[in-house]
Write a structure and sequence with these properties.
This protein is mostly beta strands. 14% of the residues lie in helices and 48% in strands. The chain has one domain.
Length: 168
């Protein structure tokens, strides 16, 4: 049993060091370009999510824009009008976007506006399964986008790094 606990601890510590955002430190964008608005989406650093070196996909209006890595943010220029952001799941054995929506938020932007959405994941249940001297974790989660005030966002964004935009 000690071997299993040590393997689990080693896995957690190893993965904690690999899955986070690695871009430049947060820097507020200039005011939105004329005729546009800006949406900030960020995922605070934390323990939930360190067991996976992969991250859910961030999409706006069905267009993939980034991976939602721990401690990461992205500023998205948008047009005025209604928009939807979603997080979608990744494939079990690959890096593909399954399209399965885990969380979503609908909102309407006006010209020149700036809005902030925090993405979080939490556990409903977590089960450790010992397999061949190591531990595999499985469970159910809760996934949320929450709009926050500029004051809250600025405080939390201080500890984030820019997410790498998707190529699609």
């Amino acid at each position: 049993m000690k071997t299993i606990r040590l393997a689990a601890l080693f896995s957690v510590l190893t993965l904690a060091a690999c899955g986070g955002a690695s871009g430049p430190a947060f820097k507020p964008e200039a005011s939105p370009a004329r005729g546009y608005a800006t949406v900030y989406v960020y995922r605070p650093d934390g323990m939930i999510g360190i067991l996976s070196s992969q991250a859910r996909f961030l999409n706006i209006d069905d267009r993939q824009v980034a991976r939602l890595k721990l401690g990461g943010y992205i500023a998205l220029p948008t047009t005025p009008g209604p928009h939807t952001i979603t997080s979608t799941d990744f494939s079990t054995f690959g890096d593909a976007n399954t399209g399965k929506v885990m969380a979503s938020a609908r909102f309407t932007m006006s010209t020149g506006s700036v809005r902030y959405f925090r993405y979080t994941e939490g556990f409903k249940s977590l089960t450790a399964i010992p397999i061949n001297g190591t531990v595999v974790f499985t469970g159910d989660g809760e996934y949320h986008f929450e709009e926050v005030t500029p004051q809250v966002a600025m405080k939390e964004l201080e500890d984030t790094k820019q997410l790498e935009p998707s190529e699609r």
